[in-house]
Specification:
The structure is a single chain. The chain is mainly beta. It has a domain of 278 residues: Beta Barrel (Maltoporin, Chain A). It has an 18-stranded mixed beta sheet that branches. A hairpin with a 7-residue loop joins strand 16 and strand 17. The radius of gyration is 25 Å and the shape is globular.
């Protein structure tokens, strides 16, 4: 039996300033200007505890069971021009989950199955359905072809909870007078995935291609419409997330560690079902995309104190209910030097780049179409790193186990 408890606390205040000026088409006449200072205030706390129990059944099988309690509390507020606003978003969630599982190994075959049941209770502004429960089964069968080759067939059902910030019901006006608003009634989306994976290990390298078929329901996506600006009454756009997307996705890819390169790539196509609510309809659509992430490294010295590496990431086109997001590839170079317990590192993102159009979002709705381009100045985008390793006393034998981390926005940056 193992027990684990963790506590996390976070507090931040960030100040932002922007101004906006609008002109008639092909004219220098100023229609209006809008500027403001905005302070984002964020307080977060969460506590979790886990109990896990394993009971061996002979040498080749075991039964597992466990319980997980999770509590998170957040206060999020923002002030405009140093004035108090009625925008305080108070959010808390209590989550209880229990699981049981069985694993068995018989020479060339291995089998594992588990079942997890969860209940969540949310306390937040404007939430009309604070409780939901889910059942999450998983199973896999593995066949060991030889010492270096194996096949694995996997099924699992996963939950993806909406981010806390996208549940904030208070609207915000952006630099282009556009409005964004969260939706406290967002529900989790669920994904059922079937996957066949082949793994080839040779030396310190491996190559693991896979094929998958995934069915999803209630995936969150923004719904865009036209409204009146609370600033000046002019027509503007508003984006609000809803559980809009259901459908399926077929794809394949591979993960590999090949001598000096770590590579992960995926190519896929999918289908969104038609969504209809009253007079609002999103037609069905097919989509296609691909992604790749790779890191290559080398040690030029015999003692391996110096490591040089290169990085590449490209996520293709992200297609949602009413928008497409195009993002440029990211690449960079870096290195690190180790001196006893000290490590110094340097990473250069997009070397020799200056101002570039990093991201383009195309939005198409029955009421309007738009193209939004985000430019970033990458000149001198350098990251410095220093770490110190404590090696005192005996080495501790750690318990080897897999920890699943689900999406609940703990790593999300402020106001995003």
């Amino acid at each position: 039996m193992t027990a684990e408890a963790s506590y996390y606390t976070f507090n931040s205040v960030s100040g932002n300033f922007f101004s906006n000026t609008r002109y008639p088409y092909n004219s220098n006449i100023v229609l209006d200007t809008y500027s403001r200072v905005e302070d984002d205030l964020n307080d977060r706390n969460y506590f979790s505890t886990k109990l896990d129990y394993v009971y061996p059944l002979g040498m080749n099988s075991k039964i597992e069971a466990g319980y997980h309690f999770y509590y998170q509390q957040m206060d999020y507020d923002f002030k405009i021009n140093q004035q108090e606003e009625s925008n305080l978003f108070e959010y808390s969630e209590i989550r209880n989950s229990a699981y049981t599982g069985f694993a068995m190994n018989l020479k060339k075959f291995g089998f594992q199955a588990s079942l997890r049941v969860e209940n969540s209770h949310i306390m937040a502004d404007s939430v009309t359905k604070p409780d939901y429960s889910c059942v999450l089964p998983a199973a896999n069968i593995q066949y060991k072809i030889s010492a270096s080759h194996n096949l694995k067939f996997t099924y699992n059902r996963r939950i993806n909870r909406p981010g806390i910030y996208v549940m904030n019901p208070y609207y915000r006006v952006g630099q282009s007078y556009d409005i964004t608003q969260g939706n406290p009634d967002l529900r989790p989306d669920y994904r059922d995935r079937l996957q066949l994976t082949y793994t080839w290990n040779f030396g310190s390298n491996y190559f693991s291609p896979y094929l998958y078929n995934e069915f999803f329901s209630d995936r969150v996506s923004n719904r865009y419409s036209i409204t009146r600006s609370p600033i000046n009454g002019a027509l503007t756009t508003i984006a609000k997330p809803f559980n809009l997307l259901s459908g399926y996705e077929l794809g394949g890819g591979f993960n590999a560690m090949l001598w000096y390169a770590n590579i992960s790539a995926r190519i896929f196509n999918g289908h969104y079902n038609e969504y209809s609510e009253g007079n609002f309809t999103i037609p069905e659509k097919d989509y296609f995309s691909y992604s790749i992430t790779s890191t290559a490294f080398i040690n030029p010295d015999k003692k391996k104190k110096i490591t040089l590496f290169a990085y590449l990431q490209y996520n293709g086109v992200n297609i949602n209910a009413q928008s497409k997001t195009y993002t440029l590839p990211l690449y960079g170079f870096g290195g690190q030097y180790q001196l006893k317990d000290h490590t110094l590192g340097l990473f250069w993102l997009l070397p020799l780049s200056k101002k570039i159009d990093y991201q383009k979002i195309e939005t198409e709705t029955p009421a309007y179409t738009s193209t939004n381009i985000t430019g970033i100045d990458f000149a001198g985008w350098l990251q410095f790193q220093y770490s110190y390793r404590f090696n005192k006393g005996r080495n501790i034998k750690k318990i080897g186990r897999q920890i699943e981390i689900e999406s609940d926005s703990k790593g999300q940056t402020i106001g995003r």
